[in-house]
């Protein structure tokens, strides 16, 4: 900021969050807040549910829940996580009936950054979850296909991701974010990634 003053927000990481924060800070300054006041406020700014939401699991494994659900948000998030670990496990699916063209693109971006990809269900709705998964898998380059695991049951998929995680690994759970449900064949079923992670941490 002006005169070399720095803005810090301990709860946020990543270039995309820094860019968002810059916009907020400029507006705050426009309304007369000083850098000191902004920094003081940011000390109490907690994590946003479903956005880079961090869980510490046993064996020095970290899980991240994030609402990212398109190629650009995948690239922003995964490029942030990639330098932080030598074992990045990315778990995701895609919503049924929506923007089917993005599915292979999501697979391609995940393959660019992940050591292991676990394809599972998001909100498949009326579509066959395995068909959605195959549409995503098409985008994974041939040389990365052997790093793909298919498990349509998202709860089982999360447990598989943890079983594969080595110390220092990061598991990125993408797509559900703050949602506490899954839509499958017209039914809205209770589903909580947080609950599953907390059970793993016991």
Key phrases:
two-stranded antiparallel ribbon; 6-stranded mixed β-sheet
Description:
The chain is of the alpha/beta class and 202 residues long. The chain is built from seven helices and eight strands; from the N terminus they run ααββαβαβαβαβββα. The chain has helices at residues 15-30, 35-43, 71-81, 102-113, 129-137, 154-164, 193-200, and strands at residues 53-57, 61-66, 88-92, 116-119, 148-150, 170-174, 181-184, 187-190. The protein has a six-stranded mixed sheet with strand order 1-2-6-3-4-5, sandwiched between helices. A two-stranded antiparallel sheet has the order 7-8. α4 (102-113) links the parallel β3 and β4 (116-119). α3 packs parallel to α4, α4 (102-113) crosses α5 and α6 packs parallel to α7. The longest helix is centred in the first third of the chain and has 16 residues, at 15-30. It is globular, with a radius of gyration of 18 Å. The mean pLDDT is 90.
